[in-house]
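BUG-475 | component: ligand-complex export | severity: low

The export step for pyridoxal-5'-phosphate jobs runs without errors, but we want the raw record kept on the ticket for reference. Input record follows.
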Amino acid sequence: MIHIPLEKASPVPFIRQIYDGIRSQILSGSLRAGSRLPSSRELAEQLGVSRNVVMESYEMLYSEGFTSTRHGSGTFVAQGASRQAANAAHGIKAEKVSMGYESPQGIINFKPGTPDLHEFPLRAWLQAVKVAYLHPVEDAMGYGQPEGRRELRQAIRDYVVGQRGVACHPDQIIITAGTTQAIGIACHLLLGDRRDVVLEDPITRDIQLIVQGQGGVIHPVTADHNGLVVDELPQGIQPAFIYVTPSHQFPLGGTLPIQRRIALLEYAERTDTYLIEDDYDSEFRFDGPPLSSLHGLAPERVVYIGTFSKTLSPALRTGYLILPPDLISQGRGRKWHCDLHNETPTQLALAHFIAQGGYLRHLARMKRLYARKRTVLEQALGKIFSDRVKILGSATGLHLAARFAGIEFTAELLADLERAGVRAYPAEAHAIRPDRLKDILIIGYGNLSEGQIERGIGLLCSVLERWASDGAKTE
Ligand SMILES: Cc1ncc(COP(=O)(O)O)c(C=O)c1O
């Protein structure tokens, strides 16, 4: 049986939903080449739709080459239609471009990386937007400079100097459409004659795709519960750059200890390479004092990236790059090439919000809120799973990683969890080298209430127990 979640209230027609559901399972490799699709009659019955609807979806899949038919024996997944197979040659397992974070109603979605959207400081933000629009009209409403508004760059500079130990001048800052664009720009600047790129493994799928998309050759280096394992850094190559998440490794959650930071910098000096520091959510550090940035140790070698996606909202699409002086001019050129500049009123509103103290107040409030949610999550995991679960990294941020003894989070198990009303995210989806992280879930709690967190962990437990007892019965 294949699982296709049909949404009756969706404006997307059933034909398209069924086509999309099967197509993405073929692309991801969870429906393998040669496997037989259910007959149109069976699937129509399973989904409660008319047989014509399923036949039309099958027709679309067939006409695009996703399936083949054998006369009298049914519809089969065609050879070579899986992105997994196509990407294996490139050393990457890209089953999806998007992580499928969109959540159907009623599902408790442990999506990592989303802040509490209900707590966006709307009133203060609207006030700041009003101030932005009242700025002299030609200045705010005309074309701007690629590096972004000076007001915002100054406010960010004051913030990173004070809070993150990043000593820089506002001219080193480029305002970007989030970290995602910042990484794209940094890749463009640093991938010249050198094509080798060192990435933590696992690391967010998006970064793997951006690096590959720009022609980088990925050299994975294991990340453990403390972040990058520096002893494994590749010898005999000169990387274009090394990309790291030292304050809060994504997704495993570790914090890079100072000994590893120093060894990493020594390696960067030896190979004369740059480091990209993705500091995406270190504002929310719950255990111990805030950590300083890697940038503070070697400002001339580190390209620092920050974002407002986790502290305010990903919808603002606002982040920033802090470049060593020799890269500033090229960096501005690349940003201009991408989209001229970030949208001005949001930049002015944000500058006002930070300068008036609203941002720091908001951070302090959110940190208390997330600390409570994290405690609820850790207690629920501990109470329900006891020593069957090991939490790998939870000192910082909006998610934690948890290893479940003896469980393998297969596509079938994840689909079963979803049917039970909970969406969970396997660490394996971010692995560069497969098959080491199948027992780890990444559990995001930023955008869930305390009640949802407790209910979600309860549901997770009941499904895992059912699987364990079904497994025991079939042994
Ligand atoms: C490691 C990492 N860095 C940064 C981001 C944020 O990206 P953006 O600032 O483009 O929203 C994410 C998204 O979840 C992430 O996982």
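Assignee comment: Attached the raw record above. Residues 23 and 305 are 35 Å apart (CA to CA).
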